[in-house]
Amino acid sequence: MAVTMHDVAQRAGVSIKTVSNVVNGYPYIRAATKERVEAAIEELGYRVNMSARNLRTRRTGLITLAVPELSLPYFAELADAVISAADAAGWTVLIEQTSASRERETEVLSGRRRHLTDGLIFSPLALGPDDLGLFSVDFPLVILGERVFGAPADHVTMNNVAAAKAATLHLASLGRRRIAVIGAHEGERAGSAALRTEGYREGLAEAGLSYDPALVREAVPWHRSTGAEAVGRMLDDGVDFDAVFALNDALALGALHALHAHRVDVPGQVALIGFDDVDDARFAVPALSSVDPGRDQIAQTAVDLLVERIGASGDPAPFRRVVPDSRIVGRESTGEDGSVVGVQHGGTEPVAAAPARA
Amino acid sequence: MAVTMHDVAQRAGVSIKTVSNVVNGYPYIRAATKERVEAAIEELGYRVNMSARNLRTRRTGLITLAVPELSLPYFAELADAVISAADAAGWTVLIEQTSASRERETEVLSGRRRHLTDGLIFSPLALGPDDLGLFSVDFPLVILGERVFGAPADHVTMNNVAAAKAATLHLASLGRRRIAVIGAHEGERAGSAALRTEGYREGLAEAGLSYDPALVREAVPWHRSTGAEAVGRMLDDGVDFDAVFALNDALALGALHALHAHRVDVPGQVALIGFDDVDDARFAVPALSSVDPGRDQIAQTAVDLLVERIGASGDPAPFRRVVPDSRIVGRESTGEDGSVVGVQHGGTEPVAAAPARA
DNA sequence: GGGCTGTTCTACAACGTTGCACAGTAGCCG
DNA sequence: CGGCTACTGTGCAACGTTGTAGAACAGCCC
């Protein structure tokens, strides 16, 4: 049915292998031959059969990006950036949605789709430090996020503590003294919530403010609805606060909604800053200050690392952890105009050996 | 290196074909044999080599979804829905971002990635009615959106005119008399802008309101920024209006931002409704009324149609156009509480034959 | 008991491509 | 002019799977 190399070879009067050589850019081919083959390809509308090539070369040219959900803007924008970066390097991305469920995240590492692609960029949300063993895999893997540290894989993460601290200090620099944080996850040892809450504490300390448990509010998961509820409850409880640090932008947008509903002026009565700097933040009412964690750099770095691993043949290079620079972007919700008011520098370091584990 | 069927066969003491039969659920296998094979698969950690299977079966189990950009919430949510629907049916989705460029959209229909997948769900934005010829392809194709009508392919689209008319009538029912529309695309014959603007005109007519060109504002492309600008200019121009119909939610959110910046109360002074009902709409400040075009149904239908085409072997079935029901969701921006205030019914009909074209 | 149907398993030959090895030819150096 | 290197092109044998065809055997009906 479909046109194969054989047909092209016949038409161009060369061997099938020569067609293959032309298609693959093998240099030792006479210009005239090359042109004849290319003409035949054009005339017949020949396309390489990827399945056959993949079988032969043991490569698919595909990589998987596993994220919780595309309908969460942060992950949609991350996916956009990863696809673009991969595209520029000649790779195609297959997206897997895990819904942040343990089962689906485990499946991503071992399931039936695993072998479809040459490597995996994985942003886990359900799996955590107790599941380190699952991450010892025999295929190229780049881990994103803050759920898992020390796994035997390259890791691109954020400057969470430093950035959260900077965000808190930013609120303090406006003269706010009762700074609330929403999105805390009580009792969690690892993950963005723990790290950012830690940064919040450090920020308070550095600003000379005391830590008040009444100002630390849970919100699970990090959605607009839970952010709205957290702030709503805080208002209903009669807690006194003049600033809110929302641990991500979805929470912040929900908080904004709740504050508005309660007729609280932002930033007049309450200053607000989020985290992630999603596109929405810029167009919220009022425009939302946020922490830009360096998303594009994260995507680019993840693709670079993964492609490097896929290409590596011999001795496994040591695993690296990369942390891009992050930035505090001040907008109306903290009384500013959209300028960068602070940069936290990242860097690259080797991954510490993971503790042995059964 | 990797475990193959051959290894499993050897270990289980059966032929390689029997392993294949077990893996593929062929029924005539003794229970004991099946168990032995499954045990061997388990012990060796065998996984089917997809490239080999794909080569042999001429199927990849992949479908492509081509959209402009994932960072646009509407498309992110659409992608989410398509991936979920495909997943449930055992298919894997590969996303292609076109950036709404002609070149990339053309490439989607014929480029090097085309043959990687068994079919394509395509939401064009740059290609239009003049490019109908490009859509005569020899692979399963489902078209989404309003750019192209009459192409020889299945088509899932929205109830644009009816829904836009209903949205306009909704604003009129609130007693608004100066209803502006933003996002018009002057001179465009096809596409969402033209259809929704048409619905707007129909709505005005039915409400007994006159059409005022000063109330029809361009915005290209449909982004928050252009929506904000359109409303900003209208305010600067001193145009009198008491309601805005934004042709999509991004425009509406931008409009909301601009109205807020100009201290115009929504819905007090100006009522606002968008189109698409993205997640953001619910959490905007104030919550945004919108038209829910039936996104989940669109995604599900698109996948169903495509899978059906892929599976079809013999005579090509006639192409269908499917229009899901759409709904007007009233929220704060039109003084309501989130209830559905209107339904426009869709349906299925055969695609009219495309005009012959060189 | 001959022929039929139903069950269980297997051998063989592809699917379309590329890696490897090698056959030529031509040019160049000493 | 012998031998070396640089080109240019080809044939063969995989890569790992599944479709087709059929062997072998049992049970059943007439």
**Cα shape of chain A:** elongated
Q: How many strands in all of chain A?
A: 14
The H/E string of chain A reads: HHHHEHEHEEEHEHEHEHEHEHEEEE
Total domain units of chain A: 3
**Oligomer, anyone?**
homodimer
Helix percent of chain A reads: 25-40%
Query: What is the CATH topology classification name of the largest domain in chain A?
Result: Rossmann fold
Summed up, the helix count of chain A is 12
* Mean pLDDT figure of chain A: 91
**What would you call the structural class of chain A?**
alpha/beta
**Percentage of residues in DSSP E strands of chain A:** 15-25%
Give a quick account of the main beta sheet of chain A: strands, pairing sense, barrel closure.
Answer: 7 strands, mixed
Indicate the low-confidence ranges of chain A by residue numbers: none
Can you describe what's shown?
- The structure is a homodimer of 358-residue chains.
- With 358 residues, the first copy, chain A, is an alpha/beta fold.
- In chain A, helix 5 links the parallel strand 1 and strand 2.
- The radius of gyration of chain A is 25 Å and the shape is elongated.
- The N and C termini of chain A lie far apart (52 Å).
- At the A-B interface, helix 4, helix 5, strand 2, helix 9 and helix 10 of A face helix 4, helix 5, strand 2, helix 9 and helix 10 of B.
- Chain A binds a DNA duplex (30 and 30 nucleotides) through helix 2 and helix 4.
